[in-house]
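Module 6 notes. Inverse folding takes a fixed backbone as the condition and produces residue identities as the prediction. Think of it as a translation problem where the source language is geometry and the target language is the twenty amino acids. Below is one complete input and output pair. Work through it position by position during the lab.
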């Protein structure tokens, strides 16, 4: 019998520490609305090469675009009605040392919006309707210290006890393998900063990157190059993975859904689904929010965390088990664990699954009346 647990869990929101004072806001503690092998930007209309974790519009599928997202019934982020964007990135999976089976290490996400990363003389613009962005690459296996696109992907070992706080081996880094899980008692944080300079013309490009660029000063802010003169809102994802909940046995114990045990192939995608005028109004009027979304008065009327938590997927899904809550024999797709991504992996016996609709249909004559709560003094039925 098909179980919804194979693909998605209820979204939830929780508080996180606020960042340094600036004109930015944080949508914190987001849980994926679905784990699925689709990518409506890179592999539009088809099954994609590897698994992604999605937040945002509840009707996301392989054909998602701006108009479709805007028609979503709900979103798993706090801003109902106005932000129907889709946010996604590859999750990490744990590989059992004995059975060699894989399980998704269910993460939480924080999504940051910065309204003040522009250079002197520049104004920040809301994303154009339908903008698509990709940061990072699923085939990168080297690190170029002078490349802002490489610098924009980083990892942090989380240990709130302070045991490794002064150890440079566990500081934020981009150029070496994931930190030792045994020292990351509060998880590993995967980070990606998106380019924030738009060419002013194209909503996408053949490589899904050329229409966007990083600033000329640093990867996370500053002046835009002349080729990409429009400075948009800057967005930044954090994926917090509870690696300490799993028995670490060395490299290969956990890997991205691409098959990468190092982190170099980490990447993320963004499909704009905002009410553009509301986002621009927020950019123009919300300052010194310290990360707190409730300090942006433009957006306060749209915040509904209960609706975000109750929002569930309403779309077809790829017909395969993805290792959510159970074990699977291989990473979804053709993704053997490896460190060399210079050539495409070969899986001669692999079969591409189809799509199906997991939403049950009611028997004629029956009516859905919702759920009831069972009392504490006896059974409801």
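Target side of the pair, the amino acids:
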């Amino acid at each position: 019998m098909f179980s919804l647990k194979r693909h998605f869990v209820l979204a939830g929101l929780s508080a996180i520490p606020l960042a340094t004072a600036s004109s930015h806001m944080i949508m914190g503690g987001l849980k994926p609305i679905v784990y699925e092998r689709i990518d409506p930007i890179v592999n539009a209309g088809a099954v994609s090469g590897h698994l992604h974790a999605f937040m945002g519009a509840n009707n996301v599928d392989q054909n998602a675009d701006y108009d479709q997202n805007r028609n979503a019934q709900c979103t798993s982020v706090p801003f109902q009605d106005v932000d129907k964007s889709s946010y996604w990135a590859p999750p990490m999976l744990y590989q059992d040392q004995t059975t060699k089976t894989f399980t998704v290490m269910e993460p939480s996400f924080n999504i940051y919006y910065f309204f003040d990363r522009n250079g002197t003389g520049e104004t920040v613009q809301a994303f154009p309707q339908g903008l698509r962005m990709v940061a990072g690459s699923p085939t990168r296996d080297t690190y170029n210290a002078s490349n802002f696109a490489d610098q924009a992907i980083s990892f942090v070992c989380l240990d709130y006890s302070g045991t490794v706080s002064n150890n440079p081996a566990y500081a934020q880094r981009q150029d070496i393998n994931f930190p030792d899980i045994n020292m990351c008692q509060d998880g590993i944080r995967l980070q990606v900063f998106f380019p924030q300079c738009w060419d002013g013309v194209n909503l996408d490009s053949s490589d899904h990157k050329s229409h966007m660029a990083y600033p000329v000063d640093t990867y996370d802010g500053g002046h835009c190059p002349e080729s990409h003169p429009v400075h948009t809102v800057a967005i930044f994802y954090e994926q917090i993975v509870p690696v300490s909940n799993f028995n670490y046995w060395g490299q290969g114990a956990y890997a991205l859904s691409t098959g990468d045990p190092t982190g170099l192939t980490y990447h993320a995608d963004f499909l704009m689904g905002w009410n553009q005028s509301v986002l621009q109004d927020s950019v123009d009027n919300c300052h010194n929010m310290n990360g707190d979304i409730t300090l942006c008065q433009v957006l306060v009327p749209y915040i509904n965390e209960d609706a975000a938590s109750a929002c569930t997927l309403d779309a077809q899904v790829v017909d395969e088990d993805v290792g959510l809550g159970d074990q699977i024999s291989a990473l979804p797709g053709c993704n053997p664990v490896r460190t060399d991504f210079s050539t495409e992996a070969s899986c001669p016996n692999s079969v591409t699954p189809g799509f199906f609709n997991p939403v049950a249909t009611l028997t004629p004559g029956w009516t859905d009346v919702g759920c009831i709560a069972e009392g504490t003094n006896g059974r409801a039925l």
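Reference fact for the lab report: The first strand starts at residue 24 and ends at 30.
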